[in-house]
Structure formats: C-alpha cells, structure tokens
Design a protein that fits this description.
Elements: H1 15-22, E1 27-32, E2 37-40, H2 42-48, H3 52-55, H4 60-63, H5 68-81, E3 85-92, E4 98-109, E5 115-124, H6 126-148, E6 152-157, H7 167-173, H8 191-207, E7 211-218, E8 224-235, E9 241-250, H9 252-270, E10 274-279, E11 284-287, H10 289-295, H11 299-302, H12 318-327, E12 332-340, E13 346-357, E14 363-372, H13 374-455, H14 461-470, H15 472-504, E15 512-514, H16 516-526, H17 528-531, E16 541-545, E17 552-554, H18 556-578, H19 583-588, E18 592-600, E19 604-611, H20 618-621, H21 641-652, E20 656-661, E21 667-674, H22 689-692
Parallel strand pairs: 16-18
Antiparallel strand pairs: 1-2, 1-5, 3-4, 4-5, 6-9, 7-8, 8-9, 10-11, 10-14, 12-13, 13-14, 15-17, 18-19, 19-21, 20-21
C-alpha cells in the first residue's frame, strides 16, 4: 500500500471506505496519533480473536501490552519521519509456543501534509522465521563440521577457481589465497599426477558430473601424501554449474596398508608353503597356490568347505582342539601332524596357526601355514635308522671285543687250570697208586711186630723205653686210620682235578656230546667254598633234580661258564639278602638253589636254576641283558657275565635263555638247548634276539 493512497484531507468513516478496509485479505488497522484504533480489517479481528466493539477507540497499548515496546518505538519514528517502517516481534501463540509477527507501519496524512495516524499491517511470519532459524542452525553446524573435520573441504567457481579463502586447504598445503587464484591449487599436486588430475577435472566440468580422483598432494612441510578427492557440482535452474563443493581425504595410511596388503598377498601367493585362512567355525576362507600344490585341491573346490575335510579319521579330534586354542587367543607353533591330500595320500606337515583379529581386537578367524616335512621326516628316519645301525654295530663290536677278551681269558684260564690239573694229577696219581701197596706193607710190618710181641713178651729195656716214648700201642692203632685219611684226601684232590678238567674242557675244543650233569657238578665243586656254611651265616643248600638226559652236543667248557655265571649270581643275590636278615631268620628260612633238568619234546633239554632270594625288580629285568649293565658296586661286577652267557646259549648253541622273577619270591633262569647241533645254528641268532626271547640276566 503506497503512502499516497493513505493521504486524505479529512478522515471520514463512510460505509464504502469501511467496507474496503474490512474486506482487505490482510490483517490491517488504522490508528490515530495516540495509537487508538479507528478502523480494522476483518482479518485483523479474526487473527487477534476480538470483536470490533472491543477494539475501536481503544489504544494499542491497552490491548497488546506485550507488543508495545518495539512497535511503539517504530510508531513514534513513523509519525515523526513520515516514512514506512517494518518491525518484527515475538509473541506467545495460543498453543503456548513462540511465534513471530511482522508489523508494517505506513503514515497517513491530511491534505495539508500533517501526519494524522498510521496504518498497521500485521503478518504472521513464524514459519519463515523458523525456516530461517533452521537454516542458520544448519549453516552453523556445517561451519562447525568443516572446522572440526580433519579433511579439506573447499568450494570453487564453476571452472574451478577458488572464490574465497580456504583455511583448511592453506593449512594443509601452505598455499596462500593469492597462490590459489585461477587453477593455482593444481601446483600443490605431485608433478607426476598433475596431468591426470587436470584431465579428470576438465571431464567433470564438461559433463557436470561427480569429480572423483586420487593423487598425491604436497603438504606444507614439502612431503607428499595420497589424497582421495570428491566434488559435486551445484547447478543453476538452467543446469549450468554455479559452484563446486569438494573434499580432500588423506588416504596415505590406507594406501600404505593397501600396498602392504598387496605385498603380503604377493608373498602369500608365491609361497611354496600352504597358507590358508579360516573362520572360527573351521570353514576355509582363502587358499593360496602353495595349498593347491600341497593338497591337490583348487581354491574353488575348498573355499566354503570345513577344514576337517583334510583331516584323517584317526586325527579328527585335532581340529576342535586347535579351534579352542584360537578362540582363547593362543597361537599354535610348529605342530607336527598328518593330513590327507585329494588323492588320498597322507603327508607329514608342520602347522603354525595364529588367530586373526579385527580393528577392535576381536578374534574373527585364523591363518594357517602348512609346511610339507615329509622329506625331513624321511631324512630323520634315515638318520635314526643309521644311528640305530651304528649303535647296533657298536654294541656288536663291544660284544665281540668282550667275547674275544673273555674267550682269551677263559682260554688262558683253561690252559692254566688244565696245566695245574695235569701237574697235580701226576703226583696225585703216583701217591694214590702207592696207597694200596703202602697199606699192605704197613699191615705186614704191624703183623710182624705183633709176632715179635707174642714171641718176645719181655723186650730189652732199651726197646721198652722206645716203645713207651713213641706210644707204640696208639701208633699201631692210628696208623691205618692215617693211611685211610690220606687216601681220602688224595681221592678228593683227584676229583677236584677231574672237575677242573671237566670245567675247562681243554681237551674238547670242538663240539662234542657230553653229560650235562657232569658239567653242572664240576661247577658246583668249584663253587663249593661259597656254598658251604661260614662262621657268620649258614650254608646254601643245593637241591639237584636231575632227569635221565641223553648226551648233548655242545661246547662243554663254554656251557659250563654259563652255568658258573648263573649260579654265582644266585649266590650273590642270596648273600646280599642275608645282609638284611638276622642269623635266626636265615636259619628259619634256609637259602636254597634248586637245579632241575628235563627233556622238552624229543630234541631239547631244559636246565632250570632257581633260588629263593629277593627276586629281581621289573625295571632291572628289562636291562639285564644289556652289556655292561650292573647294579653291583664298582669293582664287584662288570655287567658282562650274563651277556656272554646269553651269547653262549643262543648264538653258540641255538638255544634260549629266559628269566622269570617276582620280587620277594626268588628268580628262575631257564636254559633250553637242542640235543643235536647244526653248523648254521649260531648264525641264526643275533644279539638283538635278547628282547624277542625276553632273556634276562641276574646281576653280574
């Protein structure tokens, strides 16, 4: 409404004017200089919720006290300056919310130019104010977002020229606003990337589409970083570009991680080892070429399949145990196992398995490196076999050396025993052969003496004195007894010599048929001193239970040596046990060695040597046949006795030597040898046959 339309000489309230004002589509009113209402539109009354009689003639201050202050000041100025004014003020709406109203004040004057009052036009601008407020808040949030973000947000003209300062860009690149004029921003792009960047930008400008590129951007310190750039065009109504809004995002770390990932992927793909990843449920996620070569499956055949498809049936429990450790964050290092190829072949593997974690540290899967160690296993097995062979060879050498030494010792001892026996045998035979004539001669002399005593009862005094001096009566009585005792001693010496000869068997170097019982008896005679009672303990009783055996082909001297070792060890065990018992306890339980012989089938003889000693612990039984093994004190046992005895029985005679013992119930050694020997017998029995035959040796 113009100012001229409000100027009248004299304001009159005629019906036509009132009808015009009342029918205005806006809320309008006319007030005088005292701000009293003269006329109002119907819209004014309806919006304010008043009737005409409630407002005409009353001042604005009376009706709207909360609107008075800003409007009053504008009203006074409008009267004084006669100019049109607009003023906004807040008010409380009927619903209790805050609203906004805009007052438009137009002065109306008389024909003389005197301002008589003001026309008020009221307009509710709440929606516009709310929209403006929302827009302002949005702009503030946008500014705060730009300030808070670490990215570079920028805007340019349609062709790419910065229209205002770009603080984020300048802070990052160090370029001033003057340097950014035109396409100055391109100078901060790496020289090698400028051509591509300019080309992509020009294409985006021409096509008015999204600008998207990656390049290297120079920082303020001169270094370059990888940047991802995105910008969108803001179009006018005619579809021309008004401006560009863009963002630069630093992706250096992402690029480095991506490059590291590519390098890692290249390493994984080129590795000869199988590198596999799987979920915590054991489902295969990735499969490299090494895995294809090792297991024979292509990647498409196994990805999505359970890892258990590679596990043999007898190792099916390994995979759940591995997954359990991975869920607990544990790593599995160099776990050696067996897995199955596609063709069914089993392969030896060394597995290293690590948990895979996401950025939050949560375990999401596992990576597995499988290395084929079949060649290494074969090499190790070959080395173990060589070591075993070397150890066996060494044992054989030691055994052979021991046997040679023992054979030499026994040969020397046999020669010595045979020589001593021969030398003793001659004078003993001479003495023994003269006992009978000597006894006859003495009997003749004693008979003659008796005749002299009968015919000459009164001898000469000198003879009488000599008879009393020598106790002739006792001499005549004791002399036959003396000769008998000497004959018994000579007979004992003769038997010992015979036993020595039987034990050494130097006259029987070859295998011959002999009486086994004679060899056992000769051994017992040699050990008689250890068997008889001593001053501090009773003797050891030997019980013989001999069967009727045929002559047996054997090396008698060597077999007697085996008997000697076994019986000697039994005596040692009994004597050692006696040291822990009192004399009365020993008398109550007599020490006993029982020797039993019998036929086994029609072609073998069996010799059993039993004692009632403390027995042999199981742990010791397992090593009894090991050469040089002994539990005796240093200097008392060499650990060779039963090792040699075993060789004599098994290798020389093709027999077996076994031990049966329960701790606390004594020990039993059983020798079985064939009655007839063959030349191949010894070669068929090796030293390792000890364990096959469960042969054990008492402590030597």
């Amino acid at each position: 409404m113009s100012q001229n339309s409000l100027i009248n000489n004299d304001f009159q309230r005629d019906d036509l004017y009132c009808a015009f004002l009342e029918n205005l589509p806006i809320a309008a009113a006319i007030v005088d200089r005292e701000m009293k209402y003269l006329l109002t539109s119907q819209r004014w009354l309806s919006e304010l919720g008043l009737d005409e009689q409630d407002i005409i003639g009353r001042s604005h201050k009376e009706l709207f006290r909360q609107f008075c202050e800003p409007l009053t000041e504008a009203y006074q100025y409008c009267l004084m300056a006669a100019v049109e004014l607009c003023v906004e003020e807040r008010f409380q709406q009927v619903d209790g919310l805050t609203g906004w109203r805009q007052w438009t004040l137009c002065p109306w004057c008389s024909s003389a130019g005197v301002v008589n009052g003001v026309m008020l036009v009221a307009e509710d601008v709440t929606e516009r104010k709310q929209a403006e407020l929302a827009l302002r808040h949005s702009e503030e949030r946008y500014r705060f977002l730009i300030t808070a973000t670490s990215e570079i947000i920028w805007d340019t003209k349609a062709e790419g020229e910065f229209v205002s300062k770009q603080p984020a860009w300048s802070a990052y690149t160090g370029q001033t606003f003057e340097e950014l004029k035109g396409w100055g921003w391109l100078n901060a792009v790496h020289p090698d990337d400028q051509s591509h960047t300019e080309k992509v930008w020009s294409q985006a400008v021409a096509s008015r589409t999204l600008y998207k590129v990656e390049h290297r951007l120079r920082r303020h310190d001169g270094g370059y970083c990888h940047i991802s750039v995105r910008a969108i065009p803001i179009l006018n109504l005619d579809s021309s570009i008004r401006e560009w809004i863009g963002v630069h995002i630093d992706i250096t770390e992402h690029k480095q991680a991506q490059e590291a990932m590519f390098r890692l992927a290249a390493i994984v793909e080129s590795s000869d080892d199988a590198i596999i990843s799987k979920t915590l449920d054991g489902v295969i996620v990735s499969w490299n070429r090494g895995a294809e070569t090792l297991f024979g499956y292509k990647a498409q055949e196994v990805i999505g399949q359970p890892m258990a498809m590679l596990v043999p049936g007898d190792r099916i429990n390994e995979e759940p145990q591995i997954l359990l450790k991975l869920r607990q964050g544990e790593r599995v290092d160099h776990f050696e196992t067996v897995r199955q190829r596609k063709d069914g072949m089993m392969i030896d593997l060394s597995l290293t398995i690590s948990p895979v974690k996401d950025s939050t540290g949560k375990i999401i899967g596992a990576s597995k490196i499988a290395r084929d160690i079949s060649a290494r296993k074969q090499a190790q097995e070959a080395l173990r076999q060589k070591a075993t062979d070397l150890e066996t060879t060494l044992l054989e050498l030691k055994r052979t050396q021991t046997q040679l030494v023992q054979n030499e010792k026994m040969s020397s001892l046999g020669q010595l025993v045979a020589g001593v026996a021969h030398e003793i045998n001659n004078p003993v035979n001479f003495i023994y052969a003269n006992f009978k004539p000597a006894n006859e001669y003495i009997q003749h002399l004693l008979g003659l003496l008796q005749l002299y005593q009968q015919h000459y009862p009164s001898p000469a005094p000198e003879i009488q004195v000599k008879s009393e001096e020598i106790d002739l009566e006792f001499l005549v009585e004791d002399l036959p007894k003396l000769l008998c005792s000497m004959e018994s001693g000579a007979d004992r010496i003769k038997k010992i010599v015979l036993s020595l000869r039987n034990f050494s068997r130097m006259d029987e170097a070859e295998m011959k048929a002999v009486n086994i019982h004679e060899g056992i008896d000769s051994t017992l005679i040699i050990l008689q001193n250890r068997l008889k009672a001593k001053q501090d303990h009773p003797g050891i009783e030997v019980v013989k239970e001999y069967a009727n055996l045929p002559l047996v082909e054997c090396y008698a001297g060597q077999l007697n040596q085996a008997f000697m070792n076994i019986i000697s060890n039994a005596i040692d065990a009994l004597e050692e046990a006696d040291q822990l018992r009192r004399f009365q306890e020993i008398e109550q339980k007599t020490n006993e060695i029982r020797i039993c012989t019998q036929m086994v089938g029609s072609d073998h003889v069996q010799i059993r040597i039993l004692d009632n000693g403390p027995g042999i612990p199981e742990s010791v039984q397992k090593r009894l046949c090991d050469p040089f093994f002994t539990t005796k004190p240093v200097g008392k046992g060499t650990g060779l006795g039963m090792s040699i005895s075993y060789q004599i029985v098994t290798e020389k005679h093709g027999g077996s030597l076994q031990c049966h013992s329960i701790p606390g119930q004594g020990a039993e050694f059983v020798i079985e040898i064939p009655i007839r020997q063959s030349q191949q017998t010894a070669s068929k029995h090796s030293y390792l046959h000890i364990f096959d035959q469960h042969c054990f040796e008492p402590e030597d």
